[in-house]
Design a protein that fits this description.
about 170 residues, alpha+beta, Bifunctional nuclease domain, 8-stranded mixed sheet, 5 helices
């Protein structure tokens, strides 16, 4: 499986629903992956981003290390509708295991443990709300859309992602 390294750009708010969004970007800054969060998930990620390591994700890393293991990577590799899921790769003293998790929890764990966040390239490039930013891209939806109500939400999301700057994330930017 081909993977693309992602980084947390910050936490934004969906203008339509008011729901927090964790925005991941690839290293080139061209691909964005927004992950909608619950308030609890947003608070956990915000605590880690602000340096308060008191989130439950810190405990998970401590337990893995106490058992002689280490968390190697987080790979966002599955989608079900608008929800993303990840595989947490854990190396133990004698073998390696892969643990499935919701993407928000896996990303919070990766931030807490300072390990890579990756996305399966096929998933990332086909995900419904992933947006590829192009230099000088002023046009509309080059994919043509489906003409349904979803296009309006996709257009709003595209505008939100295109207009994001590091200052939009306040104290939660990286």
């Amino acid at each position: 499986m081909s993977k693309i390294t992602m980084r947390v750009a910050g936490i934004a708010v969906d203008p339509a629903s008011g729901q927090p969004i964790l925005v991941l970007k690839d290293d080139s800054g061209k691909l964005n992956l927004p992950i909608w969060l619950s308030i609890v998930e947003a608070n956990a990620v915000a605590a880690i981003l602000s340096g308060d390591g008191s989130a439950p994700h810190t405990l998970i890393g401590d337990v893995v290390r106490a058992m002689g293991g280490r968390i190697k990577a987080v790979v966002i590799d599955e989608a079900d509708g608008d929800s993303f899921y990840a595989t947490v790769e854990v190396a133990g003293p004698t073998d390696e295991v892969a643990v499935k998790a919701e993407a928000a929890d896996a990303v919070a764990l990766a931030l807490s443990e300072e390990i890579p966040i990756e996305a399966a390239s096929d998933l990332l490039l086909s995900a419904k709300f992933v947006h590829e930013t192009k230099q000088g891209d002023e046009g509309g939806d080059e994919g043509g859309g489906d003409g349904g109500g979803e296009s309006s939400l996709s257009d709003k999301m595209r505008e939100l992602l295109e207009d994001l700057s590091p200052d939009d994330f306040g104290k939660y930017r990286m």
